[in-house]
Amino acid sequence: MAVTKGTELLTPGKRWTNWGRVERVVPKFASKPSNIEEVQQTILRARELGVPVKAIGAGHSFTAIAIAPGVQLDPSGLDGLLEVDAKSKRVKIAAGTNLYQLPALLSPHGLAMENLGDIDRQTISGATSTGTHGTGGKFRGIAAQIVAATLVKADGEILVVSETENKELLPAVRLGLGALGILVDLTIQCVPAFVMQAIEKPEPMETVLNEWDERVDGTDHFEFYWFPYTDTVLTKSNKRLHAETKLQPLGKLKRWVDDVAVSNGVFELTCATGKLIPAAVPGINRIATKLTGNREFTDVSTSVFTTQRTVHFREMEYAIPREAIPNAVREINSMIRKRDFKISFPIEVRAAAQDDLWLSTAFGRESGYIAVHRYWRENYLEYFKAVEQIMNSYDGRPHWGKIHFQDAESLSKLYPKYEAFLKVRNMLDPERIFANPYLDRVLGA
Ligand SMILES: Cc1cc2nc3c(=O)[nH]c(=O)nc-3n(C[C@H](O)[C@H](O)[C@H](O)COP(=O)(O)OP(=O)(O)OC[C@H]3O[C@@H](n4cnc5c(N)ncnc54)[C@H](O)[C@@H]3O)c2cc1C
Question: pLDDT tens digit string along 316-349?
Fold first, then answer.
């Protein structure tokens, strides 16, 4: 294919920082294609210039996975609903579409995403590329809801991967770390729109840990938050209900007070205070536990799954065998107390069903997830490294979009299909057009 428009597609790159304010770069060039042909031209032009190409999503990965030193390709010009198949409940979505756009695109067709994480700012391509997940013992992550994808390869050619075309590549492409090509559209297996009942309440930590398995199996989507230095957790139990169920949503004011003012606004204040006076953290955490939680409401699924996060933080999340969660949480508790880490951010614990995507943190095992956070102004290194050490003893697999300290050697032992993924990468991108330093670290150069 000849380069015709590639020249004017590339503009000088601008300073870029991710949401967690950990990673930053000034790319050599930027490109914002508005159709598939412009994606192809961008890649070919980058090859002529000898620079790599990296797509960015919404910059919500905490790792350097989206860092683009060469051409930063912004797919936000490719957005919206492209096709709907009402019978199979499958929709084709342009790759740069943000998750928050989906309810308006899907609800006119009576459809919804089967499961979501706890925010909706990400792009569909960014979310699937890092294995973004929510919670629910019977439910898998976003990538497992993808049934087909169209990519532009390193040679500028188009590749369709689906159940009928290039099927053998599906387990790699659905969760590809952005290493295999530029995604231009994704086909999602949706479900009929549904409503969820949410019950959120504080409960004794040991009771919940002892009943972990029953709690996960006892409802559709169970998770809990634990503020270090307290013996209380905030449980969230969400039950899926028929779309016709009468809604009892939180009033706008109540939602604002709970989610924005208390969970983010007051929280920002407590985190900032905790940074200035670390000794105050245990007391602050006890107050935070009392201020949040204890509510019940019924709303459309997306409004229950996702909340707003306005306080910036850094996060590490590990998947371990589901049954190991209670002991792993207890070990983290002892470690925090022993090392005297003053942690003002809650620890989030979730579950997911196993899947068959080669680089999925839930590949081949029922998984429990432990996410630890630190306020963005605080140093996270020592705490995260100490947690990672515990996670290593449970064969923990780190979230690709969240901070971790693993490399290709250690990761290759955690994923039975790691080599199979590398083979696909070697085939689709032998010259590493889509590489960056993070991918060099986790996949090898
Ligand atoms: C506040 C907050 C809450 C979060 N909650 C959750 C949660 O509940 N569950 C969870 O699992 N994760 C969660 N995350 C992590 C987040 O979902 C992932 O890191 C996700 O990948 C971010 O999506 P993004 O659109 O911002 O992609 P980016 O971070 O910008 O990019 C991620 C990867 O996708 C690739 N990519 C993007 N677009 C394309 C494309 N068109 N073609 C090829 N590759 C592409 C990039 O190159 C990069 O490799 C959270 C993050 C934050 C900041």
Answer: 999 999 999 999 999 999 999 999 999 988 999 9
How does 358-389 read in b/e, with b if 16+ C-beta sit within 10 Å? Answer: bbbbbbebbbbbbbbbbbbebebeebbebbbe
Q: What tens digit of pLDDT does each residue of 418-436 get?
A: 999 999 999 999 999 999 9
d(CA 372, CA 386): 11
Contact 123, 165 (CB under 8 A): no
Domains and CATH numbers, the chain: 76-192 (3.30.465.10), 195-398 (3.40.462.10)
- β-pairing, 221-226 vs 182-189, is unpaired
Kindly give the number of the ligand 1 atom that is closest to the alpha carbon of 184: 41
User: How remote is the CA of residue 132 from the centroid of ligand 1, in Å?
Assistant: 7
What percent of the chain is helix, strand and coil (3-state, nearest 5)? 35, 25, 40
CA-proximal residue: ligand 1, atom 40 (nearest): 183
Instruction: Find out whether 176 and 127 touch, Cβ atoms under 8 Å.
Output: no
List the beta bridge partners of residue 182: 152
How many CB atoms neighbour CB 222 within 10 A? 23
Contacts of 379 by beta carbon, 8 Å cutoff, 6+ apart: none
pLDDT of residue 344: 86
Write the DSSP string, 124-186.
HHHHHHHT----BTT---GGGGEEEEEEE-TTS-EEEESSSSSGGGHHHHTT-TT-S-EEEEE
Tell me, using a 6 A CB cutoff, whether residue 302 lines ligand 1: no
Q: Decide: 344 in ligand 1 pocket, CB within 6 A.
A: no
Residue 269 pLDDT exceeds 90: no
Q: Is the CB of 119 under 6 A from ligand 1?
A: yes
- For the record, the structure tokens of 317 come out as 């999340």
Element (H, E) at 254: helix 252-255
Q: List alpha helices for 277-404, DSSP H.
A: 281-291, 301-305, 325-339, 381-392
Distances (CA, A) of 232 to 111, 154, 206, 262, 286: 37, 51, 8, 18, 9
**Whole-model pTM?**
0.94
Whether residue 436 contacts residue 69, with contact meaning beta carbons closer than 8 Å, is answered with yes
